[in-house]
Design a protein that fits this description.
This protein has about 220 residues and is of the alpha+beta class. It folds into two domains: about 100 residues, no CATH class; about 90 residues, Glutaredoxin. Helix content is about 50%, strand content about 10%. The protein has eight helices and five strands; from the N terminus they run αααααβααββββα. A hairpin with a 5-residue loop joins strand 2 and strand 3. Helix 3 runs antiparallel to helix 4. The longest helix has 22 residues. It is globular.
Length: about 220
């Protein structure tokens, strides 16, 4: 008798939510086990104490208001360049919020990063409006052209390629956000052209400054 295996009928959004909930619970467990630390990200950045002080100063300015969580995370990312466990735990303590809530909010919004981003950041919207108009093809084109998986950064750290569930610009679908600028009505060729141009412009600036020697991504060479 052939065994019938159950099939996954939940939509991708439900599976993604469940995965994030599991990660949030795991983060909560780490928060209770961990002692307050000041893990030092890259040595080239300012001392950790000064950056934590900047976060604390903002929390004091808003009187510890818990509804300022998202803005506090923005402040933390501005001073560190990205978010990581220790800084999320610090925010949770500062705002007196459950660590799982802070983690859940930080991982929900595409604007928050958990590793140092590349010199340029391209984010492809994969929300419903963009998806039905070919967002997957755009993401695949960029991933192939620059030899970088979605959600990762090229080895030379010149480009971070990401995706977002929704960027709130459905009327411009499909959308790509490149270095903070929204590019609407994209297609694979247009998106590749925009990103290639941004990388090439930076390369020219470096060459003009006499630095030279920077390696080019596959699509720029």
């Amino acid at each position: 008798m052939t065994e019938i295996k159950p099939t996954e009928t939940r939509p991708p959004e439900a599976r993604a939510f469940e995965a994030r909930a599991f990660e949030a619970r795991a983060f909560e467990a780490r928060a209770f086990e961990a002692k307050p630390t000041q893990t030092m990200p890259p040595e080239t950045q300012p001392p950790v104490d000064e950056r934590l002080a900047a976060i604390d100063a903002y929390v004091r300015r808003v009187h510890g208001a818990q509804d300022q969580l998202i803005q506090t995370l923005h402040v933390a990312q501005d001073v560190y360049g990205y978010l990581f466990d220790d800084v999320l735990m610090h925010v949770a303590r500062a705002l007196r919020l459950p660590p799982s809530m802070v983690y859940g909010v930080a991982t929900f919004y595409h604007l928050f990063h958990f590793e140092p981003p590349g010199e340029h950041v391209a984010t492809v919207c994969t929300g419903t409006a963009c998806f039905v108009k070919g967002a997957d093809a755009i993401a695949a084109k960029l991933s192939s052209a620059f030899e970088v998986p979605i959600g990762q950064t090229t080895p030379d750290r010149r480009l971070t390629l990401g995706s977002a569930r929704c960027l709130g610009s459905c009327g411009l679908a499909p959308v790509v956000v490149l270095d903070g600028q929204v590019h609407g009505h994209m297609d694979p060729v247009k998106a590749l052209s925009e990103v290639t141009a941004a990388l090439a412009a930076t390369a020219r600036e470096v060459t003009a400054a006499g630095a030279g020697g920077a390696s080019e991504p596959a699509a720029v060479r």
